[in-house]
Design goal:
Blueprint (H helix, E strand, L loop, with lengths): L1 E2 L1 H5 L12 E2 L2 E2 H4 L2 H6 L1 H17 L4 H9 L7 E3 L5 H4 L5 E3 L2 E8 L16 E3 L17 E5 L13 H10 L3 E5 L8 H4 L8 E6 L9 E4 L2 H13 L2
Parallel strand pairs: 1-4, 1-9, 4-5, 9-10, 10-11
Antiparallel strand pairs: 2-3, 6-7, 6-8
Helix pairs in contact: 5-9
Bound molecules: adenosine-5-diphosphoribose and zinc ion (ZN).
């Protein structure tokens, strides 16, 4: 499974590219980039506190639940660009958040700066409240921030490690499903071609997209994901 903002849209969490380059009335670079953080960390933390509460108030939808149902029969890996925890809250177990997770916080110096993959500070923690200004890292005194990947920051994920999974999917007649992503930004544009050799591939999206040899299920993620899960589960 590979998902984007369209998966959570029907839970009331807005998608990005529909919003004129603004994110909840902010310029994206002001609230979701290292530049914004340097300029005004209070604004960034306020912005993510609002996102944190919005996600907390939202519920998983039928699409999340359909993905969770697939686990009863299949080995499901969820790679998502979403920073909400709605997949986990619907019962999904293997979830990789390419762009981080809003409900975790980390030290502002949690940056991979050494060639051997070590971080300048590795502090991260789950949270039941958003990071606040003045809330400092217990290891190094840095300001805590949400554990999300901002524009201009690197995604740390081993894409080469996916080749074994792709081989397994090919051998076992496995399935690759893309749901609710415009696939315009990296790493989505980088990840999708990796799954090209898989025979059974589906795209679920509200709008028609160039589909190649994918089966396109055009419509809301909730209805389409339920339909596909029913089909795959033989229900
Ligand atoms: N059901 C199915 N698809 C939907 C629905 C829905 N209810 N609502 C929207 N979509 C589709 C849109 O048609 C679009 O193709 O979901 C896609 C959402 O695309 P984007 O807004 O570009 O979101 P995403 O692909 O997740 O963006 C990737 O870019 O902005 C950054 O970091 C951000 O993680 C995000 C990344
Ligand atoms: Zn630290």
């Amino acid at each position: 499974m590979f998902s984007g903002a369209g998966l959570s849209a029907e839970s009331g969490i807005p998608t990005f590219r529909d919003s004129d380059g603004l994110w909840e009335n902010h310029r994206i670079e002001d609230v979701a980039s290292p530049y914004g953080w340097e300029r005004d960390p209070a604004l960034v933390l306020d912005f993510y506190a609002s996102r944190f509460h919005a996600v907390g108030a939202a519920q998983p939808n039928e699409a999340h639940r359909s993905i969770a149902r697939l686990q009863a029969k299949f080995n499901v890996l969820n790679i998502t660009q979403n920073i909400d925890d709605l997949l986990e809250r619907s019962g999904c177990r293997s979830v990789v958040h390419l762009h981080g997770l809003l409900t975790r916080r980390k030290c502002e110096f949690h940056r991979e700066i050494f060639a051997d993959g070590r971080f300048s500070c590795d502090f991260k923690t789950d949270q039941d409240a958003p990071a606040k200004l003045g809330e400092l890292c217990p290891k190094c005194g840095g300001q805590l921030r949400p554990d999300v990947v901002w524009f201009g920051e690197a995604v740390s994920f081993d894409f080469d490690g996916l080749s074994a999974l792709v081989e397994e999917l090919c051998q076992n007649d496995g399935v690759f499903i893309c749901v609710g992503t415009s696939a315009q930004v990296t790493p989505a544009s980088h990840l999708i071609p990796i799954f090209a050799p898989v025979r059974n591939k589906y795209i679920i999206d509200l709008r028609t997209q160039p589909t190649g040899d994918y089966t396109l299920l055009e419509g809301p993620a909730t209805a389409m994901m339920k339909k596909l899960a029913d089909e795959l589960l033989g229900e």
